[in-house]
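Retro notes (design track)

What went well: tokenization of the new backbones is finally stable.
What didn't: we kept losing track of which sequence belonged to which structure.
Fix going forward: every design gets posted as structure first, then sequence, in one message. First example under the new rule, 313 residues:
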């Protein structure tokens, strides 16, 4: 599946559709008010401008109860209609106050996303997988500073705060890959904190879920064996987890199935052997300021590690 090329107005869930309708309604009312006021101002400028021979001050007029009632009542009705429309949208978009265990726990980090599926134990990063048509509750929080989870075609924005969980409904209608990003400035690499949501038919999602739970087979070629050995002996293992190996770090993204992802570094680049090698060699070149240091490996060592990581589908 490839990334959808869609506009913000291409809503793909009941929640996003409700937001889109509210936005369009607000925009239409604002446009009518703007055009009315602007036309009256232009009319007044032309029609009542000062002409030679007229007194400096036009006749002064005040206290017209009918007019005053009218221009108080009209804005009151407009605001009331906006209140009703907003309350309706909130009812569709906001989750209920009773909080069951969310289907996915989203944990924002500087500068990537961690996804944990509490029911099945799947852990992945940056690329979220979901079954089409199901209404899921997402719990959103942060491991460091405030971030903001936003997939425009699917959902409202929701702040990711440290030490407290916010909740979000997500009910994608059609299968596809949807783009999202961090929508709250969170430091140097705020701009490279992309999200991809893979909305799949339920059977396909189930296959993905089962595959994620598999422990990857041990490396079988000399190259990939050297790669895993380097990961376990260098600092890689203290930041990343690869199931079935000595790598059990919790600081960076879980790499158990990293080879199956489309992108690296939260959308910093595409996931190919060449880009993975470049990333392992010097992440700072691709994503300056990110928390993964350059390990001063030889190009051959980087290649061995990348070759091994690419086998982790
Ligand atoms: Cu995370 Cu901006």
């Amino acid at each position: 599946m490839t990334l959808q090329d869609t506009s913000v107005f291409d809503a793909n869930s009941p929640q996003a559709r409700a937001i889109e309708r509210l936005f369009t309604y607000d925009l239409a009312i604002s446009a009518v008010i703007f055009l009315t006021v602007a036309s009256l101002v232009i009319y007044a400028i032309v029609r009542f401008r000062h002409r030679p021979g007229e007194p400096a001050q036009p006749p002064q007029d005040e206290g017209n109860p009918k007019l005053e009632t009218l221009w108080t009542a009209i804005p009151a009705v407009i605001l009331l209609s906006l209140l009703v429309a907003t309350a309706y949208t909130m009812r569709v978009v906001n989750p209920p106050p009773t909080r069951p265990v969310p289907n996915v726990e989203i944990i924002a980090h500087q500068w990537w996303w961690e996804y944990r599926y509490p029911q099945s134990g799947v852990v992945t990063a940056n690329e979220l997988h979901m079954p089409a048509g199901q209404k899921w509750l997402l719990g959103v929080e942060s491991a460091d500073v405030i971030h903001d989870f936003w997939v425009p075609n699917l959902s409202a924005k929701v702040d990711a705060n440290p030490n407290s969980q916010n909740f979000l409904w997500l009910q994608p209608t059609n299968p596809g890959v949807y783009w999202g990003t961090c929508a709250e400035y969170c430091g140097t690499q705020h701009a490279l904190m992309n999200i991809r949501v893979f909305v799949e038919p339920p059977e396909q999602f189930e296959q993905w879920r089962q595959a994620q739970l598999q422990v990857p087979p041990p490396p079988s070629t000399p190259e990939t064996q050297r790669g895993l050995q380097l990961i376990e002996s260098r600092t890689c293992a203290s930041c990343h987890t690869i199931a079935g190996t000595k790598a059990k770090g919790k600081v960076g993204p879980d790499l158990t199935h990293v080879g199956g992802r489309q992108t690296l570094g939260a959308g910093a680049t595409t996931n190919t052997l060449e880009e993975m090698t470049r990333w392992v060699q010097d992440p700072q070149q691709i994503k300056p300021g990110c928390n993964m240091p350059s390990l001063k490996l030889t190009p051959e060592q980087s290649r061995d590690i990348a070759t091994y990581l690419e086998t982790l589908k």
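Added context from the reviewer: The chain has a mean pLDDT of 92.
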